[in-house]
Amino acid sequence: MQEAQRSTAVKRAIRRRTEHLAEALRPPGVKPKRRVEVPSRRNGAKRLVPSPVFVLSSQRSGSTLLRVILNSHTQIRAPHELHLRTLKVEPSREFSDDVMGALGLTRKELEHLLWDRILHHEMERSHASVIVDKTPANALIWRRVHSAWPKARYIFLLRHPQSVVESVMNRRKGADLDAVVQETYNYVAGVEEARQNLDGVTVRYEDLTADPERETKRICEYLGLPWEAGMVDYGSQDHGPIKPVFGDWSANIKSGKVQAARPLPTVDTIDPKLLDIVKAWGYLD
């Protein structure tokens, strides 16, 4: 017991020393990532897909465009939105929790096993080596995603938050503006929080539409895959259903070509609630 305690104390001391050294060597103006605690998966089952890729973005931020671009790569499977968080395990008998608990499996872990099996199923079906889920709602549960897959990889897809609001308002005729602003804030705040705590590659929608070749090369480098020219010609391939709930179903997506982003909102039109994230994402630089 004493030996274990000494070992733990040594590890803590090394971690503190590493943190202090990193702080001393950090260039001026560079903010450290704010790591947050996530539930441990030490007692969980091994994953069939250890390092899936998640696109973390707000709604109306180009995630469907990025999906079909990635899905055009011969080694990547990027299906429609999977909405994994809506798939629940509900035992039909009271004793089921105890039975599964004896195996070290909570309901949450059982759901994770289900989610993992779905990703594995799609990888096997497509013969791909990389699986991507682009469901925007994952930005709201990024801690759970990270808990389920500690080795997951992330693409943080940003879009000017006020542009997101405008896009949602255009899509939902008669929607309440304040409610849409709050909804957008919840999404972009989740993306930013995840971006500050997880490693990944950040891509701006406006940059993706302006220079898809450059941005997809960056993504491929992050994923450890060779870039393929066919990625930017996504319209030549079948990407499955393009309809509501599955992702964006607009004419832009159906055109099969990367369309230019709309002009950025002027500063005076930005809702104050979104301003801090607009600044953090560099849109006012």
What characteristics describe this protein?
285 residues; Rossmann fold; 11 helices; five-stranded parallel β-sheet; alpha/beta
What's the quaternary structure here?
single chain
Residue stretches low in confidence (pLDDT < 50, at least 5 long) are 1-31
Q: What is the name of the CATH class? A: Alpha Beta
Order of helices and strands: HEHEHHEHEHHEHHHH
Q: Let me know the CATH homologous superfamily.
A: P-loop containing nucleotide triphosphate hydrolases
Quickly give the CATH architecture: 3-Layer(aba) Sandwich
Number of distinct beta strands: 5
Q: Give a quick account of the main beta sheet: strands, pairing sense, barrel closure.
A: 5 strands, parallel
- Shape, per Cα inertia axes: globular
Percent of residues in β-strands: 5-15%
Mean pLDDT: 84
- Estimate the helix proportion, in percent: 40-55%
- Number of H/I helices: 11
Strand order of the largest sheet: 2-3-1-4-5
Return the domain count: 1
Round the Cα radius of gyration to an integer and report it.
21 Å
| Class computed from helices, strands and strand pairing | alpha/beta
Pfam families: Sulfotransfer_3
Protein name: Sulfotransferase family protein
Keywords: Transferase
GO molecular function: protein-tyrosine sulfotransferase activity
Q: What is the compact description of this entry?
A:
With 285 residues, the chain is α/β, with parallel strands linked by helices. The protein has helices at residues 2-25, 63-71, 96-101, 107-126, 142-148, 161-171, 177-197, 205-210, 212-223, 251-254, 275-280, and strands spanning 53-56, 76-77, 130-133, 153-158, 201-204. It has one domain: Rossmann fold (3-Layer(aba) Sandwich), CATH 3.40.50.300.
